[in-house]
Write a structure and sequence with these properties.
Radius of gyration: 23 Å
Order of helices and strands: HHHEEHEEEHHHEEEH
Pfam family, one: HTH_IclR
CATH superfamily of the largest domain: GAF domain
Protein name: IclR family acetate operon transcriptional repressor
Strand order of the largest sheet: 5-4-3-8-7-6
Keywords: DNA-binding, Transcription, Transcription regulation
InterPro entries: ArsR-like_HTH, GAF-like_dom_sf, HTH_MetabolicPath_Reg, Tscrpt_reg_IclR_C, Tscrpt_reg_IclR_N, WH-like_DNA-bd_sf, WH_DNA-bd_sf
Low-confidence stretches: 1-12
Organism: Kaistia dalseonensis
CATH topology of the largest domain: Beta-Lactamase
Strand content: 15-25%
Distance between the termini: 62 Å
Helix content: 40-55%
Length: about 270
């Protein structure tokens, strides 16, 4: 009996994503001993050939793992999901942990503070405490920011290997936002080395003229930079010494969050190679 040929999923990207998610749900609802192609196809209502194509893509990405038992190939959830699950829990938890510290930072500096993470190379704010008073410098949560002109972006890039940083910059680009924006990889890598050494980063009018942001990374128990915090102020009337003092303060509050996550303070990090 011939099998029905279904339309190519390449023409239906949303349907393809839905089916991939159906595969994960079917495997998650299974016994844990693995499922065959036929069982998965039946569970999600597609042909065996479609199920097989989906599974090969998901195995290649680590979302599904396959094992041969005798002559049969069985599929189960892959380890990529473990990593993503850890990250999701960490990011959800870090907002709750960091918000009281952000409030303390804002109280101490009278400046708006933010918490951000890297998302596909971009810096994305996931938490914020606004400064008191009628004049506030706010930024939307969830908006992707280019990392080369962002203090939180630089803080998160600073501990990454140079090759990984350059790959991100090549992919995202380094557009000039102001006359102060660093637009060459060499200049930014040098800036990131300084950031890694002192523990805080500057966006010194690099994204908006007249505006300075100072950020510092937050580390988890593995020593990875999983987030960064920052404060934002006007450049007018602030000396270089003032900004470095502000950087030291932001770093100290970032260290508090790191310690709550079981991570090291900046001073305890090993030097970069």
């Amino acid at each position: 009996m011939s099998e029905t040929t279904e339309p190519s999923d390449d023409k239906y990207p949303l349907r393809s994503v839905g089916r991939a998610l159906d595969v994960l749900q079917a495997l998650g609802a299974g016994s844990g001993n693995g499922m065959s192609v036929g069982e998965i196809a039946e569970a999600i209502g597609v042909s065996r050939s479609t199920a097989f194509t989906l599974l090969q893509t998901m195995v290649a990405r680590g979302f599904v793992a396959d094992t041969r038992i005798g002559g049969a190939r069985l599929y189960r959830l892959g380890l990529t999901l473990v990593h993503l699950g850890d990250r999701a829990v960490a990011e959800m938890g870090i907002t709750q942990i960091a918000t009281p510290i952000l409030q303390q930072l804002t109280d101490a500096t009278q400046l708006t503070s933010r918490l951000a993470v890297l998302d596909d190379g971009y810096a994305v704010a996931i938490g914020r405490v606004d400064a008191p008073g009628p004049f506030r410098m706010t930024a939307s949560l969830g908006r992707r920011e280019l990392p080369h002109c962002s203090s939180v972006g630089k803080s998160l890039l600073a501990r990454l290997p140079s090759e990984q940083v350059m790959a991100i910059l090549t992919r995202l680009g380094m557009p000039r936002r102001t006359e102060h924006t660093l637009t060459s990889q060499a200049a930014l890598i040098a800036d990131l080395r300084e950031t890694a050494a002192r523990g805080y980063a500057f966006d010194n009018e690099e994204d908006n003229i007249g505006v300075v942001c100072v950020g510092a990374a937050v580390y988890d128990r593995t020593g990875d930079a999983v987030a960064a915090i920052s404060v934002t102020c006007m450049k007018l009337g602030r000396s270089e010494d003032d900004l470095h003092q502000l950087g030291s303060a932001v770093r100290a509050y970032a260290d508090r969050i790191s310690l709550l996550l079981g991570g090291p303070a900046h001073s305890a990090l090993p030097p970069l190679a």
